[in-house]
Amino acid sequence: MTMTIDEQMAYLTKGCVDVVRPAELRQKLERSAASGRPLVVKVGFDPTAPDLHLGHTVVIRKMKHFQELGHRVVFLIGDFTGLIGDPTGRSKTRPPLSPDEIRANADTYRAQIFRLLDPDRTEVAFNSTWLSALGAEGLIRLASRYNVAQMLERRDFRQRFDAGRPIAVHEFLYPLVQAYDSVHLKADVELGGTDQLFNLNVGRDIMPGYGLEAQVVMTVPLLEGLDGVEKMSKSLGNYVGVTEPPDEMFGKLMSISDELMWRYYLLLTDMSEAEIAGLRRSVDEGRRHPKDVKVELARRIVADFHSAEDAARAADTFEARFARKELAVDALPQVVLGLDEPRALSRILVEAGLAASASDAMRKAQQGGVRIDGRRVTDGRERIAREQLPLTLEVGRRAVRLVAG
Q1: Residues 15 and 151 grouped into a single domain
Q2: Which of 206, 211, 251, 290 could serve as a FRET partner for 308 with CA atoms 20 to 30 Å apart?
Q3: Which DSSP category does 93 fall into?
Q4: Are 188 and 203 in contact (CB under 8 A)?
């Protein structure tokens, strides 16, 4: 991809919240262009959960942008830092992961990131490689480069300190060892979510002490979930998983509001801000219908994680189901239920991934959004027995086929 430095700056900073600092990023890009040496761009992931959702991919897409411009992208799996537990946003000490949990989650991450990144141009690294070798003496020397007053500038720590809630000493080590990753990799740029700004800036702070130029820090926003309110989260049920089937992914994306659609265009596509603004004008001026533009968004995202053919089929299925009122039952995702005795609909909705909790399921039913074989059900306590299966269960624009196991 050939771009001027101005075009690169616009492309790389699109959707970013913090860029510390833009002038330094420009200088690094100019130097890279002149020398032919690619920048080292680092992103760290603690393997705290086995699956990624679209919220995680906002920063991965930014990695892709650097990769497209020829830079060296390091996908850093924090198998060492995962043993500490990131204190970011925590009101109490986070329980650390076991080594087996970390290895299992890391393997899943590696498979999933290559749905966006080029595997031949992505360096995957584990920070235990150098942090375990640092040893006790090295860790003490590293800890000497920061003081407690600096650590308490972090809001999470300050709030817990002021409230008299405990802060374990090892939690202070987390931002320091994350910063040391940047030292070891000689990072030019580190990317992360806005909640990671403190940790990323610690890397900037300590790198000059190791004779290195400070890294540029770039943060991306935390993506709102399908509800448009809360951060995308599996526990809240407002997420789109990157491994979900094309039809499921497409249907979920079509459920977002017209306003949230523009946020997703900005953070989940490679379109430029100018292109997105032009698209929005076409809707505002009545030249395009919002639904058609949302279909285009859903097709783009499904194609990124599956294929263009899968995206086209998902769009056709969606159109048949909701525009022509045709429901291709055989094509629906199946949920196998072992119903030894009748079970409440609210529980089944949670098991089928159509509600985040029993209370959420009850609320969806009360609001009239739940159908069984086309029949609206408003009481989440209604019980489903094994002999009633198979059934088609719909919640809003999502549907599954319940079958007996």
Answers
A1: yes
A2: 290
A3: P
A4: no
Residue 388's domain spans which residues?
A: 330-404
Neighbours of 169 (CB within 10 A): 7
Q: What letter represents residue 11's amino acid?
A: Y
pLDDT of 85: 65
Predicted TM-score (pTM) of the model is: 0.78
pLDDT given at position 169: 82
Phi, psi of 218 (to 5 degrees): -130, 125
Number of domains in the chain: 3
Q: 177-202, pLDDT tens digit by residue?
A: 999 999 999 999 999 999 999 999 99
Determine contact, residues 229/101, Cβ cutoff 8 Å.
Answer: no
Residue 231 included in any domain: no
Three-point CA angle 184, 123, 179, nearest 5°: 30
3-state secondary structure of 381: coil
Owner of token pair 């992914």? 249
In a domain, 240, yes or no: no
Buried b (16+ CB within 10 A) or exposed e, 359-396: ebbbebbeeebbbbeeeebeebeeebeeeeeebbbbbb
Host H or E run for residue 77: strand 72-77
Query: What does the alpha-carbon distance between residue 348 and residue 344 come to, in Å, rounded to a whole number?
Result: 7
Average of per-residue pLDDT values in the chain:
89
**Residue 88 included in any domain:** yes
Task: Characterize 38-74 residue by residue with b for buried, 16 or more Cβ atoms within 10 angstroms of its Cβ, and e for exposed.
Answer: bbbbbbbbbbeeeebbbbbbbbbbbbbbbbbbebbbb
Q: At what angle do helices 54-68 and 258-268 cross, to 10 degrees?
A: 40
CA-CA distances (angstroms) from residue 150 to 143, 171, 202? 12, 14, 9
Dihedral angle, C-alpha 204, 205, 206, 207, nearest 10 °: 40
pLDDT digits (tens, 9 = 90+) for 26-76: 999 999 999 999 999 999 987 776 678 999 999 999 999 999 999 999 999
User: Which amino acid does the sequence have at 141?
Assistant: R
Rounded to an integer, what distance in angstroms lies between the CA atom of residue 178 and that of residue 181? 5
Mean pLDDT by 10 residues, the chain (405 residues): 92 97 98 97 83 92 96 92 65 64 81 90 92 92 88 85 86 90 98 93 95 97 92 86 90 92 97 95 94 96 96 89 64 82 88 85 82 83 86 82 83
Q: What are phi and psi of 167, to 5 degrees?
A: -125, 115
Task: Give strand pairing partners of 72.
Answer: 40
